[in-house]
Automatic annotation (TrEMBL):
Record's protein name: small monomeric GTPase
Any single GO BP term: protein transport
Catalytic activity, EC: 3.6.5.2
Gene Ontology cellular component annotations, sorted alphabetically: early endosome
NCBIfam families: small_GTP
Keyword Lipoprotein among UniProt keywords: yes
Organism (species): Adineta ricciae
Highest taxon listed in the record's lineage: Eukaryota
Biased composition (Low complexity): 215-224
InterPro entries in the record: P-loop_NTPase (IPR027417), Small_GTP-bd (IPR005225), Small_GTPase (IPR001806)
Classification via Pfam families: Ras
Region annotated Disordered, chain positions: 190-230
Swiss-Prot/TrEMBL catalytic activity: GTP + H2O = GDP + phosphate + H(+)
């Protein structure tokens, strides 16, 4: 894994650039969507903690974790909302993807039904989420390629038609897990002028993290980019 893929940790927010100025820090909300048992929680656990549990309990409602990565001269903090895939929790999903700047829609390459469901999630995000949301499609369980029901070329074609980042991943073997999160982090907008009051760019645009009332952690909502610690 390259240096850009390593978690930056708390110290990263205090980094200085070559000219002595504090490095820019950006915070983004990312949501994971998909059917139950496709491996959403396993992907997050692998990305955040480098771990994999063969038997992962089903998520109830949503789970919240954070991870910090470095992209060029910017520290990117990702707020990861891992949503439950069971149908009874579907009505809660908008609470988690509302205000999100990024989403990963996950399906199981060995289960065609989960790919069909992933397409429904993509349509819902395109219709109801932020218009500039970065969406990635993850075909998980690539380690079970011998049992695949969804061909790579079909998923790739669908992703290209809908402007999605696409990779096949394996939370078990870690294949492409860091890569898909980093691909999203690199695509997220980080050019806002942090010197403008309120974190807004000269054009008046800002990215705000929307926290549901039951979010984990403390501190106020933040704009996209700012110098120093957060």
């Amino acid at each position: 894994m390259t240096s850009n893929n390593r978690p930056a940790g708390n110290a990263a927010a205090n980094r200085s650039t070559a000219n002595g100025q504090a490095a820019r820090t950006c915070q983004f909300k990312m949501v994971l969507l998909g059917e139950s048992a496709v491996g959403k929680s396993s992907l997050v656990l692998r990305f955040v903690k480098g771990q994999f549990h063969e038997y992962q309990e089903s998520t109830i409602g949503a789970a919240f974790l954070t991870q910090t990565v470095s992209v060029d001269d910017t520290t990117v903090k990702l707020e990861l909302w891992d949503t439950a895939g069971q149908e009874r929790y579907h009505s809660l999903a908008p609470m988690y993807y509302r205000g999100a700047q990024a989403a990963i829609v996950v399906y199981d390459i060995t289960n065609a039904d989960t790919f069909s469901r992933a397409k429904v999630w993509v349509k819902e995000l395109q219709r109801q989420a932020a218009p500039n949301i970065v969406i990635a499609l993850a075909g998980n369980k690539a380690d079970l390629a011998a049992k695949r029901q969804i061909e790579v070329v079909d998923a790739q074609a669908y992703a290209e038609e809908n402007g999605l980042i696409f990779m096949e991943t394996s939370a078990k073997t870690a294949v492409n897990v860091n890569d898909i999160f980093m691909a999203i982090a690199k695509k997220l907008p980080k050019n806002q002028d942090s010197s403008t009051p309120g974190g807004k760019s000269p054009g008046g645009n800002s990215i705000t993290v929307d926290r549901p009332v039951n979010s984990v952690g403390s501190g106020s909502d933040v704009g996209c980019c700012g110098s120093g610690t957060k």
